[in-house]
Amino acid sequence: MTRFRRVASRVEPVARKFCEKELAAGRNVDCNVQLQIDREMKERNAYFTYAESGNRGPIIRFSVPILQDARNDDEIAFILGHEYGHLIGQHIQKQQQQALAGALILGALTAYSNAQAASVGAYYDPHAVEQNMQIGAAAGQLAFSQTYELESDMIGTRIAAAAGYDPVKGARFFARDEPARSQSGKLSFWGTHPSDQKRVAVVLATMEQIRAQEGLVRKGSAN
Fold this sequence. Notes:
With 223 residues, the protein is mostly helical. The protein has eight helices and three strands; from the N terminus they run H-E-E-E-H-H-H-H-H-H-H. The protein has helices spanning 2-23, 64-69, 73-88, 91-119, 128-142, 145-162, 167-170, 196-211, and strands spanning 34-38, 46-52, 56-63. Strands 1-3-2 form a three-stranded mixed beta sheet. Helix 1 (2-23) runs parallel beside helix 3 and helix 6 (145-162) packs across helix 8.
C-alpha cells in the first residue's frame, strides 16, 4: 500500500489540475477525487464511481489484488491516470444518457408492436415494454464502452507523463495474459477493457503528441 500512497501523492495534484482545466468551462464538475483501497474486492480491479447521487463525490478505488500485482510505480500511475480519465471524459454521464436513449427507443418500439397486435386482436405481452426497456438500457450503456476505455488511456497517458512516470512502461500492465472472466464467472478487468494492442497503440500515439507538444483533443470536447 506504500507504493499506492507514494504514486497517488504525485498523480493526484496533476490529475486535479488537468480535470479543472478540461472541465472548468461552464460545467459544475467536482474534481476533488477520493482515492481509496477496496479491501473487500477479491478480483484485480480499479474503478471510478461517485459516492453521492447527481454524480457528486468522485471516487477511484483500487482493489488489494491489483496493487499486489502491479510490478512498478509506472503501472500504478498509468492505471490511476486511466481512472481519472473516466471523470475527465465524463463517461458515467455519457453512459447514463446512452442508457436512457436505448431504453426509450426499444421501449417505444415494443409499445408500438403491442399496440399493433392489440388492434388486430393478436396476443401481446403486457410486460414486454418494461423488459425491453431494461434490455435497451443495458445495450445503450455498453454501446461505447470500448471507446471510453481508449479515451481514458489517452487521458491517463497525459496525466502519468505529466506526473513524471513512463506511460508506455505503465501500460504493460494490460499486456498480461489474463482470462476474460474471473473464477466466479464475472468479467475480469481484462475482459471489460480493449485488447492490449489497441491500448498500447493509443499510448504510443499520445506520447508522440506530447513530444510534439500537441494539446488534448477529444470527441465532443467542444460541447
